Fold:
Amino acid sequence: MIKIDKHIRILEVPGWSYPFCNCLWIDDDITCLIDSSPAETDRAFLKNRKVDMIVNTHAHMDHVQCNRDFPHSKIFMHPAEHEMAQSGDKYLEEYGMKKFGRHPEYHPQLLKRWLFRPSHIDGGITDKQTINLGATTFEVLHLPGHSPGHCGFIFPRQGFIFTADITLAKFGPFYGNMSASLPDFLNSLDLLVDMKPDFIISSHNQPMVKGNIVKRLIEYRDIIYARQRRIVDLISQGRHSIAEIASAAPIHIHFPSPKPIFFIYEQIMVMHHLQYLQSQDYLIEDGGLYYLTSRAHPSRI
Structure:
């Protein structure tokens, strides 16, 4: 647990471990938990405390997993996330199991593997909304891309932004959901660069990131463009379908285990790149196959 000020603590999860994330605990006139998937020790810490409000950054299970363990708390998240948080069927769809999965008979087991638990939701949050807890106030910052309703939170008095799954991890941005958006992710990263925060707190890996924030955000964003160049190279080498491109792992480079699941995530992220390249007139699509246009010179991408 890391103390930010009199009222704010980071409930820290060392490294990255599913289904946990770094959460914020705010002990003020109104108590508030930002995301509800802390490590086991911090779950015990919260067990006997009154949690007035839970605000979720988005609906992925490593952020909402314990919502239902707080039946008396008011739970809020962006409206674009509500269906995914409440429906196992929608969760499977979002993670590409309906488009790219081959074994629907295993869907119930997948939901168990992901520890899916539907969440009740009491209301939405919106961009620029101010949440006042007493001495502590913070502002909702809509940062779509990772998911459509993905939100961060600005803490102006403390000088930081909670950026959720914009983590600055070496892997780079993750947009392996069907409703993720590459243009939105790029815009969200550019927005953070323009804001020049003193420091950020993210949901995974090192929770508190200080020093060279703008430079690190730009490097993180540029991982997207490096992936895109690899995809263009693969198309130029004769790989024209999503599966053919994804099999070369231009995103993951080396597939983690279990490979069949990460291959689905790879296909989704490749799909988002292809859609983005099409929107820029670098690609044409014909019968599920993708071909470079004359605009797709490597120096322009």
